[in-house]
């Protein structure tokens, strides 16, 4: 069987009735054991020039989220005050006690990793989002 181009396939589909197209889709799903949504997504990638799917963009902004203070709450409060500028003791304590809570938002990777390392060293459970 000769390979049909995309344009030839589209021309063939244009000549079909809706019932014929519906039957074609059902048969296609049976033969290839897929749903109609999957072949459309799979067909879109080669139509884009056959290039591989683009890699996920690397994030440049991170949120440092305090998941829990752990056993050393006082140490974590001290580090939170160090990491988040302008926090008083009361605000830092409230922040730690209200976990899970974002500590830093929209910071670069280096700042997020540094804050995470300091907080984890003090005993806190941290996640980056």
Instruction: Give the CA-CA distance, first to last residue.
Output: 51 Å
How do the SSEs run, as a string of H and E?
HHHEHHEHE
User: Mean of the pLDDT scores?
Assistant: 79
| Rg over C-alpha atoms, rounded to the nearest angstrom | 27 Å
Helical residue percent band = 40-55%
- H/I helix tally: 6
Main pleated-sheet profile: 3 strands, antiparallel
Q: Which parts are unreliable, with pLDDT below 50 for 5 consecutive residues or more? A: 38-45, 47-53
Query: Beta-strand level of the residues, as a percent range?
Result: 5-15%
With strands numbered from the N-terminus, the spatial order across the biggest sheet is: 2-1-3
Structural class estimated from helices and strands: alpha+beta
* β-strand number: 3
- The shape, in one word, is rod-shaped
Summarize the structure.
This protein is of the alpha+beta class and 129 residues long.
